[in-house]
């Protein structure tokens, strides 16, 4: 794989770095998250209007730029450097790809150009704390994460030629400010229930949105209460719900790559700030950065960040490759089916399209690890000031912890990727494990050796 960026990609990075450096200082971020929107609306207008960021990975037919997941990941890395609070992840990472993959031609034509222009922000709402499972990152998304037709979750029923939703959804990214909500809800009886996606306007009657207190304020979340809210079905609803699970799984791979790149940007910035500090801070008559123990600790962080960057770029490139292989009609076109059972055909370490699968979750795990390590070292090596709320080191630590709560933790991301790849499961009754701990059995002509 050639990791060199094209001239266009370098320009995206350069432009965004200038904008983030100018508008996303620590004081700017702290002020932005305390606004009603939870982000700097002026910055978002610039990112959307002048730079076209929400439409970066959307087809030109819908007002987008026509790039792919790789360019969006590079943009996410730059935004991650400044911990810039914005609705980009929820809008361009979650909602827009689902509309592109599952929406009717009318829904795509009406909504996606507004998303690409930055006029409409959107998000995905799934019940409970099941976002990572719904996206197929830490568990099988064919399960009852959306309520399973039982009490809880969101229920949908057809009434008078329209759909009505009833229930509650917690931990919705940018749910308090998004103009459009894609709500996962169950329809049908208990025996034949299925999970479908529904469009709900942000100002729909019967919808109550309450912004919640979050550990990471740069990722604002909300609780949605739906009381017989009128909704529109995404797509024609003719399938059995498997197409929704497949689309969510494909989007999960892409979102994982974006989050991994964002984590790398945050970790790299935290490391750079720490290095600058240890060069200036003196103890025992010399800069603490000159001590060998400090050098070793920062060298370890550097290696982790560089490894995570390679993994994030590969995951983003793989997501772009699957989009291309699927004909460019959306991230779910031709992409993996999230409901493939572990050990079954197509559930291996590579996917059916382009040969890439499960790399998003692994890249995200590595990105989260690197950010957590970089943030912890930033707090430690900044000394007493690093433990205070006045210093911005805690912002990076909270981002690491918050992302793990929403999309991880890292060990579950790795465990589920290994499970789906059949890494520790034999293919036959005589399968055995290798004597080396954690290594899969080596098989020759069907016999474990």
Could you give the topology of this structure?
Blueprint: H1 7-23, H2 26-32, H3 41-50, H4 69-81, H5 88-102, H6 105-116, E1 122-125, H7 131-134, E2 154-159, E3 162-173, E4 180-187, E5 194-201, E6 207-212, E7 221-233, H8 242-280, E8 282-283, E9 286-287, H9 292-325, H10 359-381, H11 393-407, H12 410-421, E10 443-444, E11 447-448
Parallel strand pairs: 1-4, 2-4
Antiparallel strand pairs: 2-3, 3-7, 4-5, 5-7, 6-7, 8-9, 10-11
Strand content: 5-15%
CATH class assignment of the largest domain: Mainly Alpha
* Shape-level CATH architecture of the largest domain: Up-down Bundle
Helix content: 40-55%
Any idea how many domains? 3
Which labels suit this protein?
single chain; 449 residues; alpha+beta; Butyryl-Coa Dehydrogenase, subunit A, domain 1; Butyryl-CoA Dehydrogenase, subunit A, domain 2; Butyryl-CoA Dehydrogenase, subunit A, domain 3; 3 domains; five-stranded mixed barrel; two-stranded antiparallel ribbon; 12 helices; 11 strands; 45% helix; globular; disordered C terminus; AcylCoA_DH/ox_N; oxidoreductase
Please explain how this structure is put together.
This protein has 449 residues and is of the alpha+beta class. It folds into 3 domains: 7-120, Orthogonal Bundle (Butyryl-Coa Dehydrogenase, subunit A, domain 1); 123-233, Butyryl-CoA Dehydrogenase, subunit A, domain 2; 242-426, Butyryl-CoA Dehydrogenase, subunit A, domain 3. Helices cover 45% and strands 14% of the residues. The chain contains 12 helices and 11 strands. The strands form 3 sheets. It has a 5-stranded mixed beta barrel. Helix 5 runs antiparallel to helix 6 (105-116), helix 8 (242-280) runs parallel beside helix 10 (359-381) and helix 10 (359-381) packs antiparallel against helix 12 (410-421). The chain is globular. The two termini are 33 Å apart. Residues 328-355 and 427-449 have low confidence and may be disordered.
């Amino acid at each position: 794989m050639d990791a060199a960026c094209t001239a266009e990609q370098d320009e995206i990075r350069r432009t965004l770095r200038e904008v983030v450096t100018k508008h996303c200082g620590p004081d700017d971020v702290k002020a932005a998250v305390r606004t009603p929107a939870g982000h700097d609306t002026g910055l978002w207008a610039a990112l959307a209007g002048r730079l076209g960021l929400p439409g970066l990975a959307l087809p030109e037919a819908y007002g987008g730029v026509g790039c792919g997941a790789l360019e969006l990941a590079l943009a996410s890395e730059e935004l991650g450097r400044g911990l810039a609070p914005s609705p980009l992840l929820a809008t361009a990472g979650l909602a827009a790809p689902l509309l592109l993959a599952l929406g009717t031609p009318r829904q795509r034509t009406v909504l996606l150009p507004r998303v690409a222009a930055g006029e409409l922000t959107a998000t995905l709402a799934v019940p409970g704390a099941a976002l990572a499972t719904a996206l197929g990152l830490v568990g099988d998304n064919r399960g009852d994460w959306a309520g399973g037709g039982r009490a809880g979750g969101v229920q949908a029923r057809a009434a008078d030629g329209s759909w009505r939703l009833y229930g509650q959804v917690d931990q919705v990214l940018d749910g308090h400010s998004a103009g459009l909500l894609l709500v996962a809800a169950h329809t049908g009886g208990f025996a034949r229930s299925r999970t479908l996606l529904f469009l709900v306007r942000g100002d729909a009657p019967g919808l109550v949105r309450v912004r919640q207190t979050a550990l990471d304020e740069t990722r604002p979340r909300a609780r949605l209460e739906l009381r017989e809210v009128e909704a529109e079905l995404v797509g024609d609803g003719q399938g059995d719900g498997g197409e929704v699970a497949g689309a969510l799984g494909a989007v999960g791979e892409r979102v994982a790559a974006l989050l991994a790149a964002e984590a790398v940007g945050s970790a790299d910035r935290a490391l750079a700030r720490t290095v600058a500090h240890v060069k200036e801070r003196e103890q025992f008559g010399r800069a603490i950065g000159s001590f060998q123990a400090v050098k070793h600790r920062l060298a370890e962080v550097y290696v982790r960040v560089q490894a995570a960057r390679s993994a994030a770029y590969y995951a983003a490139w793989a997501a772009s490759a699957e989009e291309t292989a699927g004909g460019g009609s959306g991230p779910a076109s031709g992409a993996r089916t999230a409901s493939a059972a572990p050990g079954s055909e197509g559930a291996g370490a590579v996917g059916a399209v382009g040969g890439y699968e499960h790399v998003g979750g692994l890249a995200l795990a590595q990105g989260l690890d690197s950010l957590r390590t970089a943030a912890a070292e930033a707090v430690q090596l900044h000394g007493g000031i690093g433990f205070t709320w006045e210093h911005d080191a805690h912002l990076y630590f909270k981002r690491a912890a918050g992302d793990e709560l929403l999309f991880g933790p890292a060990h579950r991301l790795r465990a589920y990727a290994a499970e789906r790849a059949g890494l520790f499961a034999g293919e036959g009754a005589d399968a055995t494990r290798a004597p080396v701990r954690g290594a899969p059995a080596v098989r020759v002509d069907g016999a474990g050796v």
